[in-house]
């Protein structure tokens, strides 16, 4: 046996002897501890065990009262020897040394052996080693101050008016810092009184210590560093409420430190290894402050997330809620600070906290607790996503030109995080709440990294997204919907960020998205609406970024866009616009043409199903408009026949639709309100094409809107054709509208009253819809290219318009006669004869208004001469009687009828337009034909004839002065009309005529 080993072997016996005499030494002399402290300090260096340390701590526990300054100085002088020795080469030495240190410090503070002050705390830390001890000293300082907090004195009640001095005293009392503020200030001063490297190291150590305390409060498995940083015998001395208070104040101290002192600017410059814990027994060296701080803050960020998850699992109380709030606030502050200013350190801390292989120590046994692991995952995932969101709000990384992009600098870390999240949370059996947060964080990482983390995003995330969305079809409520929303949002971001890099995964991604988009969800809950919004947003991003590669899916894209619910019309239109902007028009037009088929195939369907089909075709017609409005003449020339065939099918849809509606049980008289739904929207030309909105034209099924949309599409097609080519194409449309008749509605024009009961309502409705589709098309072309009306439309279509107007009048009068006879048979009052047409306006009213609207659009005010004026003169001559004779219908419409105003407005506009382009002779004849109706026995006919003539004078003025004598003649007859309304209308017309001519007509009227 060597001399050294003999000495070491005798030390335990020596220490035992000292233990026996300690009580007598302490009792006999106040300075009796001095020799013991010297002896223990000397023996600790020589001992192979902890005998000297145990003897010293045992003696201190027996000490009563505060140590004398000389004894405290002696203890401080031997402090390092007591906890750092005996040295050992095995891996457990650091753990054992920290246990010794913290047990000794706990004894000093817990037994009240030192006077607790900032200076004493710092002196003790300097003696023991700042980096090894300062965090625990701060904790002990908080424990002591909480146990010795002085109660706040109650305010004295004032019984008289306060003097100025008393007011100042009260103000000072109100603004004076509280005992808690003073405690936090003191702890913060202790922390900030050391060198920067030690300060940041101790902040990390403090967070590790507090996290160990939080986990111990929760109970169960301890953290791997708990035994070193928080010996059980130290923590067990305090009850739960006090420990919660210490936790709360400790996190508040760190939060204040971060807010007031900030972080080093060079955190990201140093590579740090986070796969091992910081050296708990480290001594200060010459290492870079940034490297020390980066390592400490990475582990500190993980520690505060663990603490938050642990506090969440505690029994609810006021102190628990406060502690949880402060923990969450600190976590948010720390992660935000790192994400905004130090992204590399942020992602290192994220990889460490998530447990990424190679970036984190061995997994904690505590994580085998599924409840705790789930809470921790949600805390980390949501907190990190929020921090990256704050970065996006505050910084624009694209503006830092000439500098390495943050996403590029952090590419390896981002890829590691993405791989880990995808494999651990998306591919596993994690709870929906965790998966939702995982998708949200992946979305944020993708926004940050952009193309610099493309490999795991494409190879791992997108396939998982496809699988999740495919499985989500049966779980679109509650948490399942939230997962799908977050997944779609992440897909949207990945597609926008990576663009064509995702092409290889389109087959995995696009079909499930389209399947979800096509699912009918009856619920209108906010979650459902949000899910639809994100699904459509992801599809829109696909169209925008990889539209050229979506050819296999375009048919389904159009089906989704055109068949979606009206409640989502704005989002559906956004998707439609993205398709038009992102998909090559040649590809998109082919799919649109394939979709423009006969949707009404004669099978029996409900009215609701028919509505959906009609609305689908309205939206599909919009695609024709958008594509053709951007097309070049060369593009149209190359696809002319296919486009023409598609447009003819589009024009024919309304005639098929009305037949299907009637066969499905719709009442014939309900057709205008149930299927046609006539509106007052302007023609879709010029700016209206760009402003075309589905809120207006794609939110409710309407054959009238479909006419306008199909007409606008044909007008865009026509504008890109040579005139001869256009003539050929228009003739085909005209022949289609006529059907098997020589002219429009020729059979209806010559129909006898005796044949009224044998009318085929479906055939009539089909023919009427063809006329309305044609006149809408002609009107839209005339609006878009006014010169075409005189050179093409009127020469080819005037006689058809004439037969159609005559047919409308005949059908209206025959309907009125038939209804009147039925009313007489049922002994209804005669007064109701004025209302026989009010509820029976199909189809005469709609066709008449459609034809008159075209005339108003085609005969625009302009100068015509020579051959160019002949088509207008021919139209005025041909249509004079048919237009004027429509006034006869007003006999069967009451003044309160909802139909009369629209018919009167259309008739007046057409009459004005015809007078505007007619020669003087035709103007006289037209006005005379109109005023001839003022001699009718029916007051409504007379009144509307006068109003029509008045409108001509109002709009054209002296331009129709050639018919002054004729108008005056009829006016003189009507001045004494038995109906006061007619008399008033005549006098108003005379006043307008006098204003136009500047002459008084009184003498002429009296003669």
From TrEMBL:
One of its GO terms (cellular component) is 90S preribosome. InterPro entries: ARM-like, ARM-type_fold, UTP10. GO terms for biological process: maturation of SSU-rRNA from tricistronic rRNA transcript (SSU-rRNA, 5.8S rRNA, LSU-rRNA); positive regulation of transcription by RNA polymerase I. GO terms for molecular function: snoRNA binding. Keywords: Nucleus, Ribonucleoprotein, Ribosome biogenesis, rRNA processing. Its main location: nucleus. It is found in: Nucleus, Nucleolus. SUPFAM superfamilies: ARM repeat (SSF48371). Belongs to the HEATR1/UTP10 family. Involved in nucleolar processing of pre-18S ribosomal RNA. This is HEAT repeat-containing protein 1. It comes from Symbiodinium natans.
């Amino acid at each position: 046996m060597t001399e050294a080993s003999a000495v070491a072997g005798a030390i335990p016996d020596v220490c035992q002897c000292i233990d026996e005499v300690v009580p007598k030494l302490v009792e006999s002399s106040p300075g009796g501890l001095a020799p013991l402290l010297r002896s223990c300090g000397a023996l600790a260096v020589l001992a192979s065990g902890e005998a000297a340390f145990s003897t010293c701590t045992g003696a201190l526990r027996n000490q009563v009262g505060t140590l004398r300054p000389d004894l405290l100085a002696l203890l401080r002088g031997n402090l390092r020897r007591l906890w750092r020795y005996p040295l050992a080469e095995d891996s457990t030495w650091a753990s054992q040394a920290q246990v010794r240190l913290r047990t000794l410090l706990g004894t000093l503070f817990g037994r009240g052996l030192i006077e607790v002050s900032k200076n004493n705390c710092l002196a003790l830390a300097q003696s023991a080693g700042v980096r090894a001890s300062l965090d625990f000293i701060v904790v002990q300082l908080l424990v002591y101050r909480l146990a010795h907090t002085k109660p706040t004195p109650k305010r004295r009640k004032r019984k008289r008016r306060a003097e100025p001095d008393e007011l100042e005293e009260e103000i000072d009392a109100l603004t004076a810092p509280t005992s808690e503020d003073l405690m936090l200030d003191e702890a913060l001063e202790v922390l900030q009184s050391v060198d920067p490297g030690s300060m940041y190291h101790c902040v990390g150590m403090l967070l590790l210590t507090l996290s160990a305390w939080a986990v111990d409060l929760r109970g169960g498995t301890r953290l791997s560093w708990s035994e070193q940083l928080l010996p059980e015998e130290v923590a067990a001395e305090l009850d739960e409420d006090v420990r919660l208070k210490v936790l709360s104040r400790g996190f508040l101290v760190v939060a204040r430190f971060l807010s007031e002192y900030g972080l080093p600017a060079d955190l990201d410059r140093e590579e740090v290894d986070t796969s091992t814990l910081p050296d708990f027994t480290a001594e200060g060296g010459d290492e870079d402050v940034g490297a020390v701080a980066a390592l400490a803050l990475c582990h500190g960020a993980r520690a505060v997330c663990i603490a938050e998850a642990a506090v969440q699992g505690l029994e609810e109380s006021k102190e628990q809620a406060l502690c949880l709030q402060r923990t969450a606030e600190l976590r948010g502050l720390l992660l935000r600070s790192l994400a905004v200013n130090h992204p590399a350190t942020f992602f290192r801390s994220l990889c460490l906290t998530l447990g990424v292989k190679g970036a984190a120590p061995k997994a904690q046994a505590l994580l085998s607790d599924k409840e705790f692991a789930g809470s921790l995952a949600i805390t980390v995932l949501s907190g990190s996503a929020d921090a990256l969101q704050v970065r996006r709000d505050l910084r624009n990384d694209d503006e830092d030109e000439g500098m390495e992009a943050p996403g590029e600098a952090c590419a390896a870390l981002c890829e590691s995080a993405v791989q880990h999240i995808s494999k651990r949370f998306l591919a596993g059996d994690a709870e929906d709440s965790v998966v939702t947060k995982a998708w949200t964080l992946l979305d944020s990482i993708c926004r940050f990294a952009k193309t610099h983390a493309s490999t795991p995003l494409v190879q791992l995330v997108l396939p998982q997204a496809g699988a999740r969305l495919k499985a989500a079809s049966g779980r679109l409520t509650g948490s399942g919907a939230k997962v799908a929303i977050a997944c779609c949002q992440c897909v949207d971001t990945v597609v926008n960020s990576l663009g064509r890099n995702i092409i290889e995964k389109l087959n995995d991604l696009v079909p499930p998205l389209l399947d979800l988009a096509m699912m009918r969800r009856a619920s209108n809950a906010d979650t459902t609406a949000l899910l639809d919004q994100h699904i459509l947003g992801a599809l829109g991003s696909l169209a925008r970024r990889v539209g050229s590669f979506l050819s296999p899916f375009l048919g389904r894209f159009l089906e989704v866009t055109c068949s979606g619910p009206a409640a989502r019309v704005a989002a559906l239109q956004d998707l439609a616009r993205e398709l038009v902007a992102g998909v090559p028009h040649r590809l998109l037009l082919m799919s649109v043409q394939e979709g423009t088929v006969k949707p009404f195939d004669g099978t029996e369907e409900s009215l609701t199903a028919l509505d959906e089909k009609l609305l689908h075709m309205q939206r599909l017609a919009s695609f024709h408009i958008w594509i053709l409005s951007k097309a070049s003449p060369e593009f149209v020339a190359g696809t002319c026949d296919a486009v023409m065939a598609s447009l003819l099918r589009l024009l024919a849809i309304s005639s098929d639709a009305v037949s299907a509606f009637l066969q499905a049980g719709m009442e014939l008289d309900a057709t205008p309100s149930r299927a046609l739904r006539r509106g007052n929207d302007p023609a879709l030309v010029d700016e209206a094409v760009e402003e075309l909105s589905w809120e207006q034209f794609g939110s409710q099924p309407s054959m009238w809107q479909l006419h306008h949309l199909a007409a606008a599409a044909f007008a865009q097609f026509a504008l890109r054709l040579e005139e001869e080519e256009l003539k050929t194409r228009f003739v085909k449309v005209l022949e289609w509208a006529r059907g098997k008749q020589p002219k429009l509605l020729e059979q209806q024009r010559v129909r006898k009253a005796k044949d009224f009961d044998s009318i085929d309502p479906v055939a009539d409705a089909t023919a009427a819809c063809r006329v309305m589709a044609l006149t809408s098309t002609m009107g839209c072309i005339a609006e878009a290219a006014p010169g075409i009306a005189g050179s093409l439309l009127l020469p080819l279509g005037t006689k058809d318009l004439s037969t159609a107007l005559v047919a409308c009048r005949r059908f209206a009068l025959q309907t009125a006669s038939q209804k009147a006879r039925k009313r007489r048979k049922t002994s209804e009052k005669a007064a109701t004869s004025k209302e026989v047409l009010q509820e029976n306006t199909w189809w005469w009213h709609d066709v008449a208004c459609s034809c008159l609207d075209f005339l108003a659009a085609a005969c625009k005010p302009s100068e015509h001469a020579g051959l160019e004026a002949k088509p207008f003169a021919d139209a005025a001559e041909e249509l004079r009687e048919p237009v004027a004779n429509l006034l006869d219908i007003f006999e069967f419409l009451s003044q309160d009828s909802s139909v009369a105003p629209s018919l009167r407005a259309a008739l007046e506009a057409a009459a004005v337009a015809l007078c505007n382009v007619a020669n003087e002779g035709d103007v006289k004849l037209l006005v005379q034909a109109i005023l001839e109706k003022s001699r009718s026995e029916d007051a409504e006919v007379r009144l509307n004839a006068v109003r029509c003539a008045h409108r001509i004078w109002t709009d054209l003025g002296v331009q129709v002065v050639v018919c002054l004598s004729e108008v005056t003649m009829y006016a003189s007859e009507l001045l004494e009309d038995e109906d006061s309304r007619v008399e008033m209308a005549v006098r108003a017309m005379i006043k307008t005529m006098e204003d136009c001519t500047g002459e008084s007509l009184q003498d002429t009227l009296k003669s």
